[in-house]
Design brief:
Number of helices: 11
Oligomer: single chain
Distance between the termini: 54 Å
Shape: globular
CATH topology: Rossmann fold
Strand order of the largest sheet: 1-2-4-3-5-6-7-8
CATH superfamily: Alpha/Beta hydrolase fold, catalytic domain
Keywords: Hydrolase
Mean pLDDT: 93
GO molecular function: hydrolase activity
InterPro entries: AB_hydrolase_3, AB_hydrolase_fold, GDXG_lipolytic_enzyme
Domain Alpha/beta hydrolase fold-3: 99-305
Structural class: alpha/beta
Organism: Nonomuraea montanisoli
CATH architecture: 3-Layer(aba) Sandwich
Largest sheet: 8 strands, mixed
Amino acid sequence: MSKVTDTERPPLGIRLMQAMGKEPDWLEMTAEELAALRETVNRKRASRLARVITGFPDRGATIRWQEVELPGRALKVRVYRPSPGGHGEGTGRSGLPLVLHVHGGGFVGTAAQSDWVNSHLAARLPAVVVSVEHRLLDHETPLSAAVDDGWDVLRHVVHHAARWGVDPARTAVFGESTGSLITALAAIRARESGPLLRAQVLANPAVDLTPTGFEHPSISRHADSPTLTMTQIRMFQRLAVPAGTDPRTLSPIQADDLSGLAPALVVVPTIDPVADHGRCYAERLRAAGTPARLVEYPGATHAFLSMPGVVPQAKAARAEITEFLRGALAG
């Protein structure tokens, strides 16, 4: 049996969290049980106490919830702006860059869990960051609903750029986990119909819901990782792609044409079942002529950007993302 190296051992804080918790029986969970679990988990992730794990927001940014009227529905977004007198003041521009963010989680998750990274981007780029509180997966809500939410919010904000105080010519998308799948699909759609995107950031992306997505070596190697397990992935796939749905349409890596897309930064933690999703997607983008930078973080776990309090590598990843977007959104 091979010895576990330091780069394959999760950070101590993650190991302690795993030891203290008990994984639910995901595949046997009823709709009522999922709804109750989601409410509990999201309440904890949005609490002030959780910031010990999820990170404290940058004081140079303001954060508030806002409602967006979309076709047939209203959706909440979490908006991050540079504070008056902070790093973003005195830019001399009529509008700040826009970063459209989509959080991870799939069937749980809230934009509030990403306050640490998004407030930093807003303050330090500076930019307006709009994080989509998309519909979460359940027994009646497939992934296509969340994909539509991300796309519709992006188009809405760009269309009403003056109202939002953004420069539509300097727009990027940024997704984490499931959110990366949503933003990757948005980047593909934007190539055809606009808006013109300057960049896309995909953090620990899960981008293949076809059977091929389960065949990567990282899936079996890290099937019992502390922050994402094979059982969770199976449940995600079951809810995301109900019977009669073609999983290729929700799998960016299976797209026929990946050329002409916004340059990508693909952020991959190595202790992650879907690590090979990110690696292979970066390779496919480059093969199609789309610039793609792959950055790996040894010893980091899935969703590590939402847990800077227990995963030290999150700070370095945040700096990498900030510099990438600063270069892409300049001028």
